[in-house]
Design goal:
- The protein starts with a helix and ends in an 8-residue tail after the last helix.
- Strands 1-2 form a two-stranded antiparallel sheet.
- α7 packs across α9 and α9 runs antiparallel to α12.
- The chain is an all-alpha fold and about 290 residues long.
- The chain has one domain: Orthogonal Bundle (MetI-like fold).
């Protein structure tokens, strides 16, 4: 009894912090999403409007465009990070000269704040001073200008996210690969299985839980990307990189539409939960059937 009381006492500070900075703001966002509040308006009173904010976003062309751009970005970025991260993890499982150096260099983007990442890529892609436009023009004769080309801005944003977050995928998959027992692989080689068969029937099923956990983390991060995009493109040109996070930022701060921004935030949260749940049901749930 005394040990249980001590445990709750030790957990109390963490639980209080989580409640104050997690639960309370979330409940406030839910409450605010059913109200209209514009502090910069002539009448800044908070007015209850029911589900009008949610009804509005269904017909909001800007929100729908941001949703489509965001889902496209998440698909390309997360899939690329998984493929590249796995290949790098397999490469780092082998010994080669300079392995420690390359592994350290590879993980450096993870320690950089998102706003710094956006600033660095902004400098590297500025036509007058950027190293990337210089080499593309010298080698391929391509004039890169993310301020004018919507496709170029979107592609550069995807590449920036891959550069920033692939090390996370690599590290988690290295941990998963290191923990695999050698017996199934040795038995498969004795039975004459090829590399492709070993990957699909042994390696992938065994690292799938770690792989899906990594996918969930990356999905949640990619769906709410804001800082890097604001620094790199500002959401432009046009709506090419106006992702959902940028859309919420534009609604809440420049337009001071707090109620509508809260409603969009809840929809993004719901979308994230649904996507992760669908992935869990389709990938992990069949591996863990309920016992009768």
């Amino acid at each position: 009894m005394r040990s249980n009381r001590l445990g709750w006492i030790l957990l109390a500070p963490t639980m209080i912090i989580l409640f104050l900075f997690g639960v309370v703001p979330f409940l406030y966002i839910i409450w605010l999403s059913f109200h209209q509040w514009n502090p910069a308006a002539v009448n800044p009173d908070i007015i209850f409007i029911g589900a009008d904010n949610f009804r509005k976003l269904v017909f909001d062309a800007g929100f729908l465009a941001s949703l489509g751009v965001t889902l496209t970005f998440v698909t390309f970025a997360v899939l690329s990070e998984l493929v590249i991260g796995y290949l790098l993890a397999q490469a780092f499982m082998k010994d080669f000269p300079g392995k420690a150096f390359f592994r350290t260099i590879h993980t450096l983007p993870l320690i950089m704040a998102p706003i710094i990442v956006g600033s660095v890529w902004k400098l590297m892609t500025t036509p007058s001073i950027g190293i990337i436009p210089h080499f593309l023009d010298s080698w391929f004769g391509y004039d890169l200008n993310i301020g004018q080309s919507a496709v170029a801005a979107f592609v550069v944003t995807v590449i920036m996210d891959i550069w920033h977050w692939t090390p996370l995928v690599t590290l988690t998959l290295i941990a998963a690969l290191v923990s695999l027992p050698p017996d199934p692989f040795e038995q498969a080689q004795i039975d004459g299985a090829g590399k492709r068969q070993i990957f699909w029937h042994i390696t992938l099923p065994m690292i799938l839980p770690a792989l899906m956990a990594t996918v969930f983390i990356r999905l949640m991060d990619a769906l709410r990307i804001v800082d890097e995009v604001l620094m790199l493109t500002g959401g432009g040109p046009g709506s090419a990189t106006r992702f959902l996070g940028v859309h919420i930022f534009r609604e809440v701060f420049p337009r001071t539409s707090y109620g509508y921004g809260s409603a969009v935030s809840l929809i993004v949260l719901y979308l994230t939960i649904v996507v992760c749940w669908l992935l869990y049901v389709s990938m992990l749930a069949p591996r863990n059937p309920k016992k009768d």
